[in-house]
Prior knowledge:
Blueprint: E1 14-17, E2 26-31, H1 38-42, E3 53-58, E4 62-65, E5 78-81, H2 88-108, E6 116-122, H3 124-135, E7 142-146, H4 160-164, E8 167-173, H5 181-193, E9 199-203, H6 211-218
Parallel strand pairs: 2-3, 2-6, 6-7, 7-8, 8-9
Antiparallel strand pairs: 1-3, 4-5
Amino acid sequence: MREHQIRVPRTARYYVTGEPGPTTREVWFVCHGYGQLARLFLRHFEPLAGDERVVVAPEALNRFYIEDPEGGHANARVGATWMTREDRLAEIADYVAYLDAVHDEALASAPTSGARIVVLGFSQGVATACRWAVQGRVRAHQLVLWAERLPHDLDVVAHADRLRQLDLTLVLGLEDRWVSRDAIAEQEGILAAQGIPLQVITFQGGHRLDAETLRAVAGGPG
């Protein structure tokens, strides 16, 4: 048995809120978590969007049925995932290339060359956002890690120069049972050793986005 790989064209989708144009001063790219869909995830960011801030939500390339208590798929909720452990390196390369394409198309609609770029990942989307920020074409000004740390296999030393150029922000719910505080502390130490500042913001809540905290990260409504 021999494995073969082949590249194929496929259709992907992304959603945008805000009015891209010459007044755009900030463009956000937000990566949803496991089992979510982009259009639903983007609703959390609609209060931030406007003439000056555009929010772009790409949807992960792998969609699947989420368990339906009624049985069957007719009424089953659909979610998406950025990757699994299966053929993971090819999956990573594919979504980095996909996000590059979304980035190029989105910025073509917001021609302000000085627009500030923010990349935000939530939960599983944190790893996606981080890998894209250091491997892709995007030149983000801020990288927001919401409810997860940097992916364990991201070489902080190799990417230290790029990470130092980012306003690196970690947002955590104080009741988030999915995030290890020891792992966060360990990562803070690794980043500090490379001279990479990390701002940590907490809120009272669990593994979710928080509207008030999101507004604070954005510095107010768009």
